[in-house]
Design a protein that fits this description.
two-stranded antiparallel sheet, globular, 276 residues, alpha/beta, 7-stranded mixed β-sheet, Spore Coat Polysaccharide Biosynthesis Protein SpsA, Chain A
């Protein structure tokens, strides 16, 4: 069983679907996939902060079972846990949204497996997920790759927390997430959840950049992370192009490697909207 965790509100659906499709289309799997989606309702902060809907989960489940009937998805509402741990904290207005803090609750969520791959939703797999999931994390809290910009601007081994292979058993033992939550409650952090995780880490394993390429797509790239990127031409500027921005992926990045995945995604979304 390969365990994968996504976190977010109902806006993460496109990312979760495209990421899942890339995993299933680029991997030769002898075991099923088990997806965990952690979500919550914090519409009291902003009206649009709504949980992943049951309709989205049903459709996602239908899609993944089309590849393997043993694939499963479980949606877990952590609203109560969030309010208990983070309501009113200085990081509730985090750089993205309160949903970035959800994964810091994982050690308090019953039923999560000891080994789990946490993924941001702006992720596409270019090669087999087994290349990443088979990494041994038995003696570390997690494995992660360097942050493309942070390794130059902050420190050489500064990690990007968008792709993390967790040893959740050890993280519970060392109290990594409990320490991270304590930091979130006490102090405003530049990158909120990522900063809290890094500061609370006891032991990690560094992954090659191919497991979290945040700027380029190479033949050896396993994971392409569509995070915000700096462009120098025609003038210095940043763009935040995600994989579900299909036309921009093709026109700006000139990527054609994901065409089969993105074409299927577009067809599925037409079906989803038609059913609604």
């Amino acid at each position: 069983m390969i365990n994968i965790m996504f976190c977010g509100n109902d806006k993460v659906f496109d990312g979760a679907l495209t990421c899942a499709l890339s995993i299933m289309k680029r991997s030769t799997l002898s075991e099923p996939l088990r997806f965990y989606m952690l979500t919550m309702d914090v519409s009291h902060i902003k009206p649009e902060y709504l949980p992943i809907s049951s309709r989205q989960i049903e459709f996602f489940d239908k899609v993944i079972k089309g590849y393997n009937p043993e694939n499963t998805v479980k949606c877990i509402d952590v609203t109560e846990l969030y309010n208990e741990e983070f309501a009113g904290s200085p990081n509730e207005s985090a750089y993205c949204s309160p949903y970035t803090l959800i994964r810091l609750l994982a050690d308090r969520v019953e039923g999560l497996p000891d080994k789990i791959l946490y993924l941001d939703i702006d992720i596409m797999f270019n090669r087999d997920i087994s290349l990443l999931y088979s990494v041994d994390v038995s003696d570390v809290e997690y494995a992660a790759a360097r942050d493309h910009y942070g390794k130059y601007l902050i420190k050489p081994n500064y990690v990007n927390a968008g792709v993390m292979l967790w040893n959740l058993k050890m993280m519970r033992e060392t109290g990594l997430l409990a320490k991270a939550r304590d930091l979130i409650r006490k102090k405003k952090l530049t990158f909120a959840d990522q900063s809290a995780i890094i500061r609370s880490t006891t032991k990690k394993k560094m992954l090659a950049q191919k497991f979290n390429d945040q700027k380029f797509l190479h033949k050896h790239t396993v994971v392409r992370h569509f995070s915000k990127r700096l462009f120098w031409l025609p003038y210095p500027h940043t763009e935040n192009i995600k994989q579900w921005h299909v036309e921009k992926v093709r026109k700006v990045f000139k990527y054609r490697q994901f065409d089969d995945i993105l074409d299927e995604y577009l067809n599925l979304m037409e079906e989803y909207r038609r059913d609604l």
